[in-house]
Every structure is written in structure tokens, then in C-alpha cells.
Specification:
By secondary structure, the chain is α+β, with helices and mostly antiparallel strands. Among the domains are: 117-162, no CATH class; 174-336, Glutaredoxin (3-Layer(aba) Sandwich), CATH 3.40.30; 399-508, Roll (Ubiquitin-like (UB roll)). Helix content is 51%, strand content 12%. The longest helix is centred in the last third of the chain and has 95 residues, at 304-398. It is elongated. Residues 358-388 form a coiled coil. Residues 86-107, 336-358 are annotated as: Disordered. One of its GO terms (biological process) is ERAD pathway.
């Protein structure tokens, strides 16, 4: 019965964060990752360790299963022949394969050797004496910094000596060690077509687990007499090379020298005590959902036919299971990619909707601002027109009356208005041109019908929208010239009220 899928939205925030961290490291399916995290009490480090190293027996589940043990059945009777037949039946089908742990060797420069307890007790007094004498020496080195440089040895050669084993073989990182093994093998046995992998054991194990493929681990020890025969007659045999090279077999080949730290740890973990040693590793779902186990071990000297006969049946027995797992993983990856594409399409659509909403909002804001500006312009125009009319009414009440017949120093002016009306009026010669302009501007309000003249509007500066011009010759009389009517017009004159067009104002500007 299939396990019902868990809704991720129902997980807590800490559980969702743990799930995201775990899947980013392992790239496992979310439902399987949730079940593994539940078995690990939502501890990300424990879950990642179980994913790479395989899961051990669940003690809690075994204890719960022990409480539900059925009652013992009746004692079974069998004769000697039946016992012999049961003893000859194969037991490998019921035995679980050994786990293949993930080995990550510690760098050589970080290894701290620890002496045994007996040596630690013997050297304790010397250690105390060293600490007693090191204090004054340290004080002297602080006072005289040149003293330590005089007695200091070459640290570079000491570092190199610490990084070299007792057998004279320098320890390298996993990738460099794998390349060195390939180079030494080629120098010893010549060029070959083996599908070497220039990576560490942990990297190859992770790749085999991720791709649901096989990992063939070959450990060599040059100190054994059978190593040369195995490499020349078995490992370089065309059938063996073709078995490892065949892409349908999906085998990753990793070869290590037990004199290297990583290969020695791998030999210890895979229980390889006799060399040359070959282990075939693959995914074993019966042990755990993420377990990698050793399905075949081949040790000792043998011919190429026997070597392949020991590996091929184990390889073929797991081919179908791994093929199904690869198909399921491909389907899960396709589904995950499809969900990611859907999420990306949704995000793009959401971004487009947001962009359209932003553009629409900006357009609405611009239209509202334009409408507001238009309203304000209309209000300002109406207010300006009201102030202008108020100013004209106020100025009409301030216009000097026409001088009488007893006044001799007068100027008679005929003014042609824009409405084709002709006005005759007398002005004092001492009146300014501004007075004449104000008369023309406020002519329609000079009837004097208003009982009370309005006040002058505050903050208003009047601008004349016309000019007074004489025709023959054409002379323009400005209001701001500061001259009097007598100085400009003389004793009499004919003036035309000429409106100032916008084009003329632009030309003047």
C-alpha cells in the first residue's frame, strides 16, 4: 500500500527550512526526504549522514515490533535428511549485503597523533618541565625578537617530512592521489583503455548513488606478489576492460593504492584484507532507501574468466532493480522540473500582471494629476478673472474725471476701441500715459452706477492686454514709459486700441 503524500504546507516553519536544506544538499525527492527527516527527528545532519552512509537498524521500530511478536508455534519435527537438505539450501537470499560507508579522509596536515596511555604517563614530567622552562624563554624571545630566528630550523623541510609517510610516499588529496595511481599504473603496465575516474572515493560513491549505477572499487597493494599478475593478466584483459567500459553496464571504476590514506580507509571499511581486492557497490533498497552496499567481493589471484564470472551474476541480479529506480528518479526529476517550470511560468505571469497593474496605476495617477492640474488651472483662471474684474472696478473709481472747459492745458484724443466704437475725451496734459491706459481698460465701468467701489485686490498685478498706437506715422505709446499725455500725443491725436496677440508676445520674448 502506497504511503500517502505529505502536504508540505502543513509542516512547521522549522521543518520546511530543514526540508529545504536537506534537499539542496541531496537533491532527493521531497516525499522521501520528509520520511527520512521524520525518521531522523528532523535533524538535518543526521538525515544527510543517513543519506550518504545508509541507515542502520531502527531500534525504536524493532522494539515496537518485538511487542507484537506472535505466540510461538508448535515445535517442528524433522529428520536428519531434512536437516541436511536445509543446510545445503542457499542462504545468500536472506542475508543483507554489507553497507558501503562514505569515506572522507582527513587532511594529512590536520592529523594529530596521540600517544598511548603508558607513553603519556611516562612523558608527563618532561611535559611539566618543558612548560616551566618555556615561560622564561618566551619572555626572553619577547624582549629580544632576533633570538628565535637564530635558532629556528627550516620549517619547510619539516613540513615536507611530516607530510611523507614512513615508506617515503607523500600523502595527497583524494583527487590528486587517484591521478597519481593512474599515472603509476600507466608507467608500470603501459597505456590502457580502462575507464579511470580521477576523483576521490566519496565523490564516485555519491555519483553512483545519484545515478543509480555501479561503483567498482579495485584496491591494489604493490607489496603483494599477485598484484603484477592481476594487473597484467586480469585487469588489462580485453573482456574485463570491455566489461568496465560498456556504457550499458553503467559502472564507475575507482582504483586505489592501499599505501594512500584514502584507499587504506576504504579497504578497512569494505573489509578488504587480501589483495588485490575488488568490490562492486550499488544502491540496495532492501537495506534502506538511500543505502549503498557491497553486492560482490573478489579477492586474491584468479584468471580473467573467473573474475568476470564472479562479477557478472551480481551485476545482472541488480540491473532490473536499478533500472526501475533510475526510471522512477527520472520521472521524479521530470515532475520536479515540470513543477519548477510551472512555478517559473506562474512567477513570470505574476510579474507581468504586476507590471500591467503598475502601468495602469501610473496611468491613472497621471490622468488624476492631469485632471487636478486642469482643475487648478481653471480655478486659477477664474480667480485671476475675478481679481482682474475687481481691479478694473476699483481702478474705474479712481479715474480722474474729464477736465472742464475752464481748464486750458488739455489734450483731445479720439480713441478707436476694438468693438469699432469711437470715443472722444479730453485729458490733462499732465496726466500720465498709465492714466490713459487705465481709462481704456476700465471704460465699461465708468458709468458710476456702483454704490460702493470695491477694494483693490491683494496680490494682483495688472498686465495690459492691448497697446495704444497712432496710425500716421505709426507710433506705439507704452504705459510704462513715464511720459505724460501732452508729451506723447501733443494737443490732439487719434489713437487705436490694438490687442496684443500671443504671437507678438512670443516674438517680443
Amino acid at each position: 500500500m502506497a504511503t500517502p503524500a505529505t502536504d508540505i504546507s502543513q509542516l512547521s516553519e522549522s521543518q520546511q527550512l530543514a526540508l529545504q536544506t536537506y534537499t539542496s544538499v541531496t537533491a532527493q525527492d521531497e516525499q522521501e526526504a520528509i520520511r527520512l527527516l521524520e525518521r531522523s527527528q528532523w535533524n538535518v545532519e543526521i538525515a544527510i549522514a543517513k543519506f550518504f552512509d545508509g541507515e542502520g537498524p531502527d531500534l525504536v521500530a524493532e522494539a515496537q515490533a518485538a511487542q507484537n511478536i506472535p505466540p510461538p508455534q508448535a515445535r517442528r519435527q524433522e529428520n536428519l535428511q531434512q536437516s541436511l537438505l536445509r543446510g545445503t539450501s542457499p542462504r545468500n537470499s536472506s542475508e543483507r549485503p554489507d553497507a558501503a560507508p562514505r569515506i572522507v579522509p582527513q587532511p594529512a596536515d590536520q592529523v594529530i597523533p596521540r600517544p598511548s596511555l603508558l607513553l603519556a604517563i611516562l612523558f608527563t614530567p618532561f611535559q611539566l618541565l618543558y612548560k616551566v622552562f618555556s615561560l622564561p624563554l618566551g619572555f626572553l624571545s619577547y624582549l629580544f625578537p632576533f633570538l628565535p630566528r637564530l635558532f629556528r630550523q627550516d620549517t619547510t623541510s619539516g613540513t615536507l617530512r611530516r607530510r611523507v609517510d614512513t615508506n617515503g610516499r607523500r600523502q595527497l588529496p583524494p583527487d590528486d592521489a587517484a591521478q597519481r595511481v593512474q599515472r603509476e599504473f600507466t608507467e608500470e603496465y603501459g597505456e590502457n583503455e580502462l575507464p579511470w575516474v580521477s576523483s576521490g572515493y566519496a565523490t564516485c560513491l555519491d555519483k553512483a548513488k545519484r545515478d543509480y549505477s555501479y561503483l567498482a572499487v579495485i584496491l591494489l597493494s604493490p607489496e603483494h606478489d599477485e598484484t603484477s599478475t592481476f594487473c597484467a593478466d586480469v585487469l588489462l584483459n580485453p573482456e574485463v576492460v570491455q566489461f568496465f567500459k560498456d556504457p550499458t553496464n553503467k559502472i564507475t571504476l575507482w582504483v586505489g593504492d592501499v599505501r594512500d590514506s584514502e584507499a587504506y580507509q576504504v579497504a578497512t571499511a569494505l573489509k578488504g584484507s587480501k589483495f588485490p581486492f575488488t568490490a562492486l557497490i550499488c544502491h540496495t533498497p532492501e537495506v534502506g532507501s538511500t543505502a549503498m552496499s557491497v553486492i560482490a567481493r573478489v579477492t586474491g589471484p584468479m584468471d580473467a574468466r573467473s573474475y568476470l564470472a564472479a562479477l557478472r551474476p551480481k551485476h545482472a541480479a541488480r540491473a532490473e532493480t536499478l533500472s526501475v529506480a533510475r526510471t522512477a528518479a527520472a520521472a521524479q526529476n521530470a515532475e520536479r522540473n515540470f513543477r519548477q517550470e510551472q512555478d517559473s511560468a506562474y512567477e513570470r505571469s505574476l510579474a507581468q500582471d504586476r507590471e500591467r497593474a503598475r502601468v495602469r496605476k501610473e496611468a491613472e495617477a497621471a490622468a488624476a494629476a492631469e485632471e487636478k492640474a486642469k482643475l487648478k488651472a481653471e480655478q486659477d483662471a477664474a480667480e485671476f478673472a475675478a481679481k482682474k474684474e475687481q481691479w478694473r472696478r476699483w481702478r474705474a473709481s479712481q479715474i480722474t474725471p474729464e477736465p472742464g472747459s475752464d481748464v486750458k492745458d488739455v489734450v483731445r484724443i479720439a480713441i478707436k476701441m476694438p468693438e469699432a466704437a469711437r470715443i472722444m475725451r479730453r485729458f490733462r496734459a499732465s496726466d500720465s500715459m498709465a492714466e490713459l491706459y487705465d481709462f481704456v481698460e476700465c471704460f465699461e465701468f465708468l458709468n458710476g452706477d456702483e454704490e460702493k467701489a470695491p477694494e483693490k485686490p491683494e496680490g494682483y498685478e495688472h498686465v495690459y492686454a492691448f497697446r495704444l498706437v497712432s496710425t500716421l506715422p505709426r507710433v506705439v505709446y507704452e504705459a510704462e514709459s513715464g511720459k505724460t499725455v501732452g508729451e506723447c500725443v501733443g494737443r490732439s491725436g487719434n489713437l487705436i486700441v490694438e490687442p496684443i496677440a500671443e504671437d507678438d508676445e512670443e516674438e517680443e520674448d
